[in-house]
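Regression test attached.
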Amino acid sequence: MEDKINLATKLATFSEYFSPRTVAQLNNLDVMVVKAKGEFVWHKHDETDDFFLVLKGSITIQMRDGNVTLGPGEVFVVPKGVEHCPVAEEEAHILLIEPTNTPNTGNPETAATRRVV
Amino acid sequence: MEDKINLATKLATFSEYFSPRTVAQLNNLDVMVVKAKGEFVWHKHDETDDFFLVLKGSITIQMRDGNVTLGPGEVFVVPKGVEHCPVAEEEAHILLIEPTNTPNTGNPETAATRRVV
């Protein structure tokens, strides 16, 4: 039987920003936690929507036609093909869901290596 | 542009137990919130894993080979084909993710109608 996953416990295992850790899989998707602080890079995913749930802190998802700011318990799905750039003034913790092996920068050459914790 | 989704605000719009509400879509999946109290029914989904994240309270996911009890910030993915029966002594709030039109009881004839809020 699989174990349950405590998201805070998983988040305590690393400190790097914008370096998602896969904590579970759901069909062909990775369920990931990530710590964010500062500005990420503008990018898009042509093949998949991009799910964000803020667990702690606050992030702003900048998009070309406007921004969305999320606090704890708030969800936003960036539709496939939409350019976006997350930014967090203070450290924020986020649950992400994307198909396994989706490059986090939208580009396999610059993407973080997939890491499972 | 899509709006952000505040999960607590969505949960405040209904009171029925075991009646999931779709709050967003991610590719071909429904992101749902549900209130649980009491015991659901034993069922399985042959075609999909079943994602649970507890937002408030506590639920136990009973399975034939053991139980998993989840509190806030804890995730469990029931693998496809595994019989399970969630139970909550007190009201619990849960985030669920499943492919759109997955019957919540595993059986289209007894499943809750899909509702989007």
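Expected vs. actual: identical. The interface with chain B takes residues 1-8, 23-27, 29, 31, 48-49, 51, 53, 55, 63, 65-66, 68-70, 73-77, 79-80, 95, 97, 99 of chain A (CB under 8 Å).
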